[in-house]
Structure formats: C-alpha cells, structure tokens
Amino acid sequence: MFISEAFAQAGDAAAAQGSVYGTLIQLGLIFVIFYVLLIRPQQKKIRQHEAMLMAIKKGDKVITGGGIYGKVVKAEDNGMDLVVEIADGLNVTVNRATIRDVINDAAPKPANSNSKEKHKK
User: Fold this and answer.
1) CA-CA distances (angstroms) from residue 10 to 1, 7, 15, 20, 53?
2) What is the mean pLDDT of the chain?
3) CA–CA separation, 6 vs 29, rounded Å?
C-alpha cells in the first residue's frame, strides 16, 4: 500500500514539472507571434517614416500632422525646423517630426470634373 502512494506522489511532481515547461513554451510562442505580427512591422514603419523625414528638402510638397498642405521653402540638413509655405507669401515654421507625408508629384491624380462633363455629352 505504501509503495503505490509513493509512486503516485512522484507522478504528480513530474506532471507539475511538465506543465511548467509547457506553459513557458506557450508563453514563448505567443511572444514570438506578437513580435513577428505586431512589433516588427511597426518598427519597420517607424524607421521608414524617420528616413522620409530626414530626406525632406527644399521644394518638396508636404502634409503636416494637422492636415495642412504646403511646400518646403527652407530645410536644413540637420535642423529639426522647416519653413513651409502654405499660401502665397504665408510661411510657417514647423517641426520636422510633425510632417505626416511627402506628396509625390508622380502619383496619379484623381479624375477632375471635366472628365464627367465629357461623359454626359
């Protein structure tokens, strides 16, 4: 009778030890999945945005974080401030980090209202 109880206690300890390792493996797998699906792409996007900010030069058309469109009038290579012309003769100084996007003139332009009038005729 004592022998069977001793074996039963040893089995419980081994089962508890195995479940700890299983839990650690599952947590490790969850972390790897989060890293691959969430953290790594976000870091890549941040690096691309920082590279875009540092590549801004005079003459680029930009969109600020507040949604204001403008043309860069003055940009220093290492400076964090840009002078952006938002209207004829109206220049504002913005922090380089507040620029959301650089507008590429080569991007396709949306169809204007003239093309709709041609189809109506």
Assistant:
1) 15, 5, 9, 16, 63
2) 82
3) 35
